[in-house]
Amino acid sequence: MTATAPTAPTAPTTPTGTTLVIGATGTTGSRTTAHLVAAGQRVKAGSRRATPLPGTDPVRFDWYDPSSFGDAVAGADRVYLVPPVGDPDPAAVMLPFLERARAAGVRRAVLLSSSAIIEGGPAVGQVHRALPGLFDEWAVLRPSWFMQNFTGTHAHADGVRADGVIRTAAGTGRVGFVDADDIAAVAARALTDDRAPDTDLVLTGPQALSHDDIAALLTEVTGRTVVHHQLAYEDMRDRLAAVMPSEFATMLAAMDRSIAEGAEDRTTDTVHRLTGRPPHDFRTVVVRELSGGAAPAGVTPTSSAV
Prior knowledge:
By secondary structure, the chain is an alpha/beta fold. Helix content is about 35%, strand content about 15%.
C-alpha cells in the first residue's frame, strides 16, 4: 500500500544550532552525520571512542556511562538518537539521558525506531511513547529492515559472505527494505527543517521483496549463488539466542514470524515526500556497495532488529 502523492519538501534551516548525533559511527549515524555536514550544519559526533569524523566535533558518548552525557549535550539543541544495540529495555538508559538533554537546552529529538515497533510497544516503543512529552519538536523514524543487512556488518551479510545463505523465519513474506542512506536523508531533514515532523514516519524502499527475491538479486548482481533457508520460528529464536540476550532473540524471531504473516508487506512515500527524490531500490544499493567486493569502511551496526 502506498500513501498519498509526495509534496515538495520545505527548505532546511540555516545552520543556527548544533546537532548531537548519537551512534555517529554506525550505519545510519555515520550517514546522517555526512548529510548534516554537507548541508553546512554543526555536528557533535557521539561515539564510545569519540571517533573523529570529517567536519564534526567528536565527543565521547556511552548509553551505559551517564558521566559521558554532560559533555555530549553541552551546546547542542538537537539530537539524533540511536538506541543501544541489543538492549531489550532501552528506555531504562535512554529516558534519563533525554531528561538531561532537555534540561541542557536540547529542543528537538529524532529517534531511530523500527517499522515493526509501534508507539508504546516493546523495547524502543517505550521511548517513542515518551518523546512527545519531553520535547516540543520531535520525530520518530520507523524504517523497515535495512538493505545494508545484506551488504554490511549484519548477520545476514555475514551469512552471505561465509556460505551464500540467508537464514530467516520470515518464510515468503515480503518487506519494504530501505537504504540506510535514505533513512539518513530523512533524518537530516527531520533535524533541520524549519518545522519538525512531530510524528512518526514509516520509511521503506520502492518495493516489497521476499528474502527469496533478495537472494536472487544478490546472485544476479554479484555472480555468486545466494539462497534463502527458511527456518521455523523456534529454530530462529534459538539460533539468535546463542549470540544475544534471549529476550531480544525472542523479539527478533517474532518479528520474522510477523513478516511471514504479511506485517511488513507495504511501501510508503515518506522518503520521496521529505527528500524530494524517490528511495533507492535494492539493486542500486547492491551495485553501489558490493561492486567493489567490500562493505563501506568504518561502519558499525546500529540495530539488529532492522
